[in-house]
Amino acid sequence: MTRYKVATTDEFDGDGARVLVEIDGLEIAVFRVDGEYHALANYCVHQGGPLCEGKLTGKMSVGDDGVGWEYEADERYVVCPWHEWKFDVTTGRNVSDERYVTPTFDVTVEGEDVYVVR
Ligand code: FES
C-alpha cells in the first residue's frame, strides 16, 4: 500500500466538497462529509458511470412505524449521473442494495495535507 498526497484541507470548501484525483490511472474522489474525509473510486459498479461526479443528497427511508417516510438530510449519498443509483460516500455501499459496493480507500490527514492510501 502506498500513501498519496492528493490535496490540502483548504481545497475543500466545507462539507459536501470533493476533490477528484487520478492515482495510477484510477480516478478517485475525496469527499468531505461531517468534517471527515472519504475516498471512493469514480466508477459506478452498475455500468461504469462517473459516479463521483454526481450530486450529493440525503436519503428517503421508511420510518420507524413502517408506514411513513423519513428524510435523512445528512448529505452523504452520491447519485450516479448516468442512471441515478445512489451510494453512501462513507461506505461505498448502494443504498437500495448493499451487495453493490463502490471501492473505497482510506484517507488520512496530517496537518493540512490529505492522503489517500491505495
Ligand atoms: S452507471 Fe451508475 S447508475 Fe448506471
TrEMBL record:
One of the record's GO molecular function terms: metal ion binding
Record-linked InterPro entries: Rieske_2Fe-2S, Rieske_2Fe-2S_sf
Keyword field: 2Fe-2S, Iron, Iron-sulfur, Metal-binding
Iron listed as a keyword: yes
Rieske domain ranges (all copies): 3-116
PROSITE patterns xref list: RIESKE
Pfam name, any one: Rieske
PANTHER family: 3-PHENYLPROPIONATE_CINNAMIC ACID DIOXYGENASE FERREDOXIN SUBUNIT, FERREDOXIN-RELATED
Protein name: Rieske (2Fe-2S) iron-sulfur domain-containing protein
